[in-house]
From TrEMBL:
It holds the Pfam family RNase_H. This is RNase H type-1 domain-containing protein. CDD domains: Rnase_HI_RT_non_LTR. It comes from Araneus ventricosus. One of its GO terms (molecular function) is RNA-DNA hybrid ribonuclease activity.
Amino acid sequence: MGNAVRVLLVNDIPVVAVKVCTDGSRNDSDCTGSGIYITKLNQELKIHSRNPDFCSVFRSELIAIDEGLDSLSSFFYSDEIYILTDSRSSIQHLANWHRVRDNTGMNILNKLKSLLVSYRLHLQWIPSHVNIQGDEIADALAKAGADDASVPSAPLTYLELLSRAKSRHKIIWLIPPVHHWYQGSRPGSCLSID
């Protein structure tokens, strides 16, 4: 068989179930993207989107889940929907639903709540980079989203804005100020005004 690639399938998922594979990615330029691959029998939908620069990979993963839930309307549902992600932190974040305060997490929880009325939902972790077909496609889509030249539309969170400011002003923050009153001649000196 030589160089044949072995494609792994996630066990115990019914063939007629809708499978939503999601992933987030960041490239070397701090651009982030989300990838969503939805499949059911012979239907498939591939989506990639650019996220705000300096967005965390964790948030990119959540954005992918959120957009994946939005995209389910284009599929004829079966009784079960499987959301498959390689982000354990996203699942843990959503599992602590009573502590979720971010907009993306709240959007996901509200969508899950409305879908639970009619469908059985499964949010499942899958290992990354082990040739699981849906995850590999979602990973490639997330990378394409990060490399997309379009301008992201989602606003940054406070922590992302802070990270962006730190990276832009890092040089300034590392160089001590040059004001004469910072140059104290003895320990404990302070600014004095006559």
